[in-house]
Amino acid sequence: MNVLVVGCGQAGLALVRRLEESGCEVSVLDASAENLRQLGGLEGRPFTGVALVGMPIDVDVLRQAGIETCDAVAAVADDDRINIMVAQIARDVFGVQQTVACIADPRLEQIYAEEFGLTTLCPTRLTVNAAMDALTGVFAPPARGSTAAAGGRLRFLRKKGRRAGRAKG
Predict the structure, then answer these.
(1) Is 4 helix (H, G, I), strand (E, B) or coil?
(2) Where are the strands (E) in 37-163, listed by range?
């Protein structure tokens, strides 16, 4: 699969590595050359794809990044508006069927998912849901200090003595 990742911040870097590990051909587009420089040093492996500096909402720049031959586009830049526009351009102008736009604002994410039919993800909503799951015992880390999901119940470790939230009396 040929994937264009727009945005090379923390999420973009991690996504690029996961895509490469799964055998995808990856191109990365970011407005910042500084962000793209990080591609070479992540996890000690060289980036094997194409990296391009440019404005992600410019159709000509998207063409240079290879959008016309992409099977999928992931817009994970730090700007919701950029991600929304890139996903819409990819889908509506270039006919890329598999697109996802990262939208941090839950209200915007809902509007663009429901009203415009974009495939979206909202890190704010995902974080809140994961925190609620962890706090209510739905999510259980396998061991102390680990964040990977596993079976069992969440255990809250308390110091001996009074319970949290109780006033001395």
Answers:
(1) strand
(2) 50-53, 72-75, 98-102, 120-121
Locate the DSSP E strands across the chain: 2-6, 25-30, 50-53, 72-75, 98-102, 120-121
Mean pLDDT over 138-157 rounds to 45
N- to C-terminal Cα distance for the chain? 64
| 2-6: strand order across its sheet | 50-53, 25-30, 2-6, 72-75, 98-102, 120-121
CA distance 45 to 17: 9
Q: What is the three-class DSSP state of 66?
A: coil
| The predicted structure's pLDDT at residue 48 | 85
Residue closest to 28 by CA, chosen among 62, 57, 60: 62
| Beta bridge partner(s), residue 72 | 3, 98
Task: Say which residue the tokens 């799964």 belong to.
Answer: 22
Beta strands in 21-139 (DSSP E): 25-30, 50-53, 72-75, 98-102, 120-121
CA gap 146, 71 in Å, rounded: 34
Q: Rounded to two decimals, what is the model's pTM? A: 0.78
pLDDT per position as a tens digit, 112-142 = 999 999 999 999 999 999 999 989 876 555 4
Sign, Cα dihedral of 152, 153, 159, 162: negative
Q: Are 145 and 157 in contact (CB under 8 A)?
A: no
